[in-house]
Amino acid sequence: MTLRRFALLLPAAALLPRPARAHALVIGSEPASGARLAEAPREVVVRFNSRIDAARSQLLLAPRREAAGGTADERRLDLVSGGPDTELRATLPPLAPGPWRLRWQVLALDGHITRGDIPFTVGG
Ligand SMILES: [Cu+2]
């Protein structure tokens, strides 16, 4: 195509709607957000609405202390590989009873990073 025609097409392309499947959002997890579990879970799974780059994504776990707000004792979980590329899975160390916060940060294949928290509680 001529350079002139190319220049005319550019503005139109910029106005095209973005793909409906954009960055990764959580569609489910085990434990579920806000869950109260009688026994400590052995693993966590977070499922997303789109494919993610697991090598550039992470799951972190910390005791939840709303008042303190610090992340000093947050630990990065080792991801279990080999599952679907729309989920993150990690085995857990033994968890003490109490409130916990699973934090996820993922890179979707569209290059966008998203993050969020999944709080859950072990024990009554
Ligand atoms: Cu996106």
Automatic annotation (TrEMBL):
Cross-referenced Pfam families: CopC
InterPro entries to which the protein is assigned, alphabetical: CopC/D, CopC_dom, Cu-Rt/internalin_Ig-like, Ig_E-set
Ranges annotated as biased composition (Basic and acidic residues): 66-78
Subcellular location, principal: other
Signal sequence residues: 1-22
Keywords per UniProt: Copper, Metal-binding, Signal
Stretches the record annotates as Disordered: 66-92
Keyword Transcription regulation: no
SUPFAM superfamilies with a match to the protein in the record: E set domains (SSF81296)
Subcellular location, record wording: Cell envelope
Domain CopC per the UniProt entry, residue ranges: 23-122
Highest taxon of the lineage: Bacteria
Protein name: Copper resistance protein CopC
Species lineage: Bacteria, Pseudomonadati, Pseudomonadota, Alphaproteobacteria, Acetobacterales
